[in-house]
Design a protein that fits this description.
395 residues; alpha/beta; eight-stranded parallel β-sheet; 15 helices; globular
Length: 395
């Protein structure tokens, strides 16, 4: 089929938004076959079924490349604690934070976890999202980590959306266990089991003073490399203990949060081709003041992605459009950087080279908007102008 009479933001490499006025897109199955001005449409496509977009704007579909979508319970009580002065680290050390969600997730049934996760996925789908990453990490034992990954896989079977799973066993240290014992006796064996069961697309970790140091994460990453799995890392969110440099050493797909990254860290990411994933929802919720070094990333040519970090504690955010606005308002990204951050660079952060641009040969994941310019998507607050979402060529 052909989508006609559209303003198209192709995001083709080196073109900025790559806007095409009075444009057309030819879709062949799940793939984009041609894109350009309608007047330049090749004769071979003239007889195809046409769909008039009535001047609407078409962009690549959106991608949320960092979520913790599967979890039990909520942490509204801790939200109140933080408002009364407790820091994120103080809440965590008191047995709250991630550990409280671990308790709720362990006791939740697989069906209950799926029901709640689908509600969050539906919110993203309504904003034109066609690909999400979902992490484990709220189990910290073999059975629950596997349960979370199975639920993540089921999301893609229950909804028209693609899911990439990340094993985040190295998320927190369980109560009553030291970090090294947990890594060696639970985390790594669980990773091997999850991989054997086909549940893992990438391996993540939380490299932070309240979680795991670089040597402990490196042991997990060594196993990931042995299994042929790409890695990514929560790095430099609350302090700088070398996580970004570690991620670069392993050629990670992404280093995420990175508020405390330095210009030297930016240079390392540039050399390794690692994406810096910015998560303004957590920055906002935790009322942080240390911004990621966006200018250093620009100066060194580090690709920057944006994501919701949807989770029950530090970023209870299920709107990628709002994350775009936050990225611009809080981190001073440009609207182009925000748009690229939820399309081109988000795809790169997940290792999905067939997404994120509207060019021939790419997968036909598209979003049709009641808007006249891509900057509107980052500019508006609490407003969803999505008209139509096309997933693999189907609406």
């Amino acid at each position: 089929m052909i989508l006609t009479n559209a303003k198209i933001a192709t995001l083709a490499k080196g073109t900025g938004f790559g806007l095409i006025e009075a444009g057309a897109i030819v879709i062949d199955g799940a793939t984009i076959a041609w894109v350009g001005r309608e007047t330049d449409l090749p004769a071979e496509y003239a007889g195809l079924e046409q769909h008039d977009m009535q001047g609407r704007m078409i962009t690549p579909a959106l991608i949320d490349c960092h979520t913790h979508l599967v979890f039990g319970g909520n942490r509204a009580a801790e939200f109140e604690l933080r408002l009364n002065g407790a820091s994120y680290e103080e809440v965590a050390r008191a047995g709250g934070g991630i550990i409280s969600t671990v308790t709720a997730t362990r006791t939740a049934t697989e069906d209950a976890l799926l029901t709640d996760a689908l509600t969050r996925a539906d919110a993203l789908i309504r904003e034109g999202v066609t690909l999400i990453e979902v992490k484990s990490g709220y189990g910290l034992d073999t059975d629950t980590e596997l349960k979370m990954l199975r639920v993540a896989r089921k999301i893609a079977k229950m909804r028209p959306i693609d899911v990439r799973t990340s094993f985040l066993g190295a998320h927190a240290v369980p109560m009553g266990m030291d970090a090294d014992t947990y890594i060696d006796e639970i985390c790594i064996p669980t990773l091997r089991t999850a991989h054997a069961q086909g549940l893992v697309d990438a391996v993540d970790g939380f490299c932070e003073g309240i979680a795991f140091d670089t040597a402990q994460i490196a042991r997990v990453f060594d196993v990931a490399q042995e299994l042929g799995l790409p890695v990514k890392l929560h790095a430099e969110q609350l302090s700088n203990i070398g996580g970004t440099q570690l991620a670069a050493t392993y050629g990670a797909l992404s280093a995420d949060h990175v508020e405390y990254a330095t210009p030297a860290d930016a240079a390392a990411l540039a050399r390794s081709g690692t994406v810096a994933v910015l998560l303004p929802g957590a920055f906002y919720t935790l009322r942080e003041t240390r911004m990621p070094p966006v200018q250093a990333f620009r100066d060194h040519g580090v690709p920057m992605a944006l994501a919701t970090d949807c989770n029950p504690g530090s970023s209870p955010l299920a709107s990628l459009l709002l994350a775009m606005n936050m990225g611009c308002t809080l981190f001073r990204l440009t609207p182009l950087e925000a748009m690229q951050g939820v399309t081109v660079q988000a795809a790169r952060a997940l290792g999905c080279a067939d997404r994120g641009r509207i060019v021939a040969g790419m997968r036909a994941d598209l979003a049709v908007w009641d808007a006249s310019h891509p900057a509107e998507l980052a500019y508006r607050i609490g407003f969803n102008p999505l008209h139509q979402r096309i997933f693999g060529g189907a609406s």
